[in-house]
Structure prediction request, 432 residues.
Amino acid sequence: MDKLIVEGGYKLQGTVNISGSKNASLPILAAALLTDEPVRISRVPDVSDTNYMIQILSQLGASVERSSGTVRIESPDGISSSASYDQVRKMRASICLLGPMMARMHRCTLPLPGGCVIGDRPVDLHVRAIQALGARVRVKGGNLVIEAPNGLVGTTVDMRGDNGPTVLGTDNLMMAAVLARGTTVIESAAREPEVVDLANFLNKMGARIEGAGSRTITIHGVERLHGCEHTVIPDRIEAGTFMVAGIMCSDTGITLNRVCEEHLGAISALLRECGHTVNFNEAGDSVFVKAGEKPTSGKILTAPYPAYPTDMQAQMTALFSVTPGISVVKDTIFPQRFMHCSELKRMGANIKVDSGTAIITGVEGLSAAPVMASDLRASAALVLAALAAEGTTEIHRLYHIDRGYEMLDDKLMSLGAHVQRVPDPDEGKAEL
Ligand code: EPZ
Prediction:
């Protein structure tokens, strides 16, 4: 177990390359199960979540080779239809194996993913989707046991849940439907860029999917899919995180390369509304960010894409903590996703959290304190705060960050930050 030592106050400068998207890679890696031909996926970030997915695919019987960012997967007939608990429990997103396993083998046994610190992570919409295509679903010994002995048959499914659309639920239904008999229409589909990237990957494999990126996706079932090559889209949440870093911790501003302007609309708009500079190049694949002279507080109401993403509210809360005025953050998707606030308060932030809303009163500056990472994005918020704080901060449980940020410490060091990853002898001791 590692911890990150961050010496605050060093100003960032220069340029950083953003990695491929973790949240696009995970369903695309799972979709490799849909064909017995080899697929090659490039720019898969080397983070623990994608490594878990690769381990699960190998355990199922697929052959997986990884060389730097490119992953080659071949899933021969006879691969297993059940994933092991000890792998699945590590990553809730393993639920996105459901669709491809059902499409390929018409049966699967998947451990029910546990909850996590950002809240209960139900799978009722995933179950609704696969039942609609004709599968029978039972819960047995903590596993989802799903069978469709007569195969899957296309139909229309409304995927809206109490908290709006579901990203991985939409992915699962799309992946289950590509080999189903007939046509499937997904109503209230998620519009995230990662859903569009998966649809593009599936169409390269020979699927017939229309409307990805809109609320209605139509999938015409086909007999079989073939191998293909694909490069995943840039990680918009990593990009957003570095945009906030360039505004919180730099006098000159910084440049991010390998981004996609189209995917950063809500994030860029909020930073501009708060008085900061966000300038994309002509191609929209590079962006320069710099703190405004008179930054102002702001308001976030997270909602499904293209609105402001829940995965970016913690990072923006770190910036709001040192922005004059009162800012408000309400997370409509994960109302409990405020673990970072108590840690930021240890660093001197002035935040009140009440029923899914954080009220942040900007302070002059933050001060270093030993803090605990909790979930992936909360941990990123602590790194941002530590970079801006006075003194040296120790961030424990670094594994949370390693789930979704590729070489974060190296990237920050290349921008001039003084950070150091060291073994954490205290890790695992009883919490105070
Ligand atoms: C994806 O999770 C992302 N993960 C999450 O990013 C992201 O926060 C989330 O979408 C929302 O944008 C990946 O793509 C791997 P949902 P997902 O199903 O698909 C409720 C990160 O930090 N819901 O879109 O699992 C759910 O409780 C991670 O990278 C049901 O009620 O999220 C939530 O309130 C964290 N029933 C809302 O829908 C279901 O069956 C949206 O969840 C499924 C979801």
